[in-house]
Amino acid sequence: MKRSGLPIFVRVDGRPVILVGEGAAADAKRRLLERAGAVVLDETDATSEAQGPRLALVACDTPEPVAARLKARGLLVNVADRPDLCDFTLPAIVERQPVTIAIGTGGASAGLAAALRQRLEAVLPASLGQLADALASARDALRARWPDSAARRRALGAALAGPLDPLTEQPDDAVARWLSSGGTEAGALVSILLRSTDPDDLTLRQARALAQADRVTHRPDVPRAILDRARADAERMPCTAPPRDLPGLTVDVAMGA
After folding, report:
1. Residue 65: in which H helix or E strand, if any?
2. Residue 15 burial by CB count (10 A; 0-12/13-18/19+): exposed, middle or buried?
3. Which of 189, 178, 233, 183 is nearest to 211 (CA)?
4. Alpha-carbon distance 29 to 33, whole Å?
């Protein structure tokens, strides 16, 4: 069972969400909801049924009966510090609007999620949000330059691993300058010889290649944990030797001696 559940982003801007509780924990939940634009309601609010909330947050001393009542109404419920009562958990968040990075531990440790958030806050540049906005504004230009979606994805992947690296501070006109230079398109065969079955032992270069691959060719003994480091939509091809002359980026993975 996947303890952390399905990670999704739920739009609550202008929509009702029930909050039950008082004190510091409830205040923190309220700030989180208000920052997301939610209309925060009490469980007993007469308008709550009419407005149709679908989510509820609980932060009180005896949450079991409250959670049971809310779940009986068909709401998905989060209970502070009680993952066993939660239908969903709230991640630690790093924001570089419009980029939001959520870190969840499946309720195992909020402290661990917070520590990871602090590390990411120090790594992610302030320009990350404006890079996302610039790429959104350039969507039509990208489609015009690369009408084929696979070619467009390869070109953008190569740029984000190079001149548009999101982990470095980017000037306001970085995307425009990249497009005016003609862009670049990745298409190659990268071979990875594993020395360990642990995905944490992948080098940065190997992990980046897997994340950008259009397809992953691999020997039958390559662990799934390694293959899961590739994009979800990258094709997986078990084989004894990688095919040649395939379009896009092929990453071939084999176990070393």
Report:
1. helix 63-72
2. middle
3. 233
4. 6
**Structure confidence by residue, pLDDT tens digits, 211-248:** 878 889 999 999 999 999 998 888 899 999 888 777 77
Instruction: Centre a 10 Å sphere on the Cβ of residue 31 and count the other Cβ atoms it contains.
Output: 11
The answer to whether 16 and 51 are in contact (CB under 8 A) is yes
pTM strictly above 0.90: no
**Secondary structure (3-state) at 4:** coil
C-beta separation of 101 from 69 below 8 A:
no
How confident is the model over 88-130, as pLDDT tens digits?
999 999 999 999 999 988 888 889 999 999 999 988 999 999 9
Distance, CA of 188 to CA of 249 (rounded, Å):
5
Residue-level length of the chain: 257
Residues of the chain above pLDDT 90, percent: 59
* Cα–Cα–Cα angle for 97, 100, 105, rounded to 5 degrees: 160
Query: Cβ distance 133 to 97 under 8 Å?
Result: no
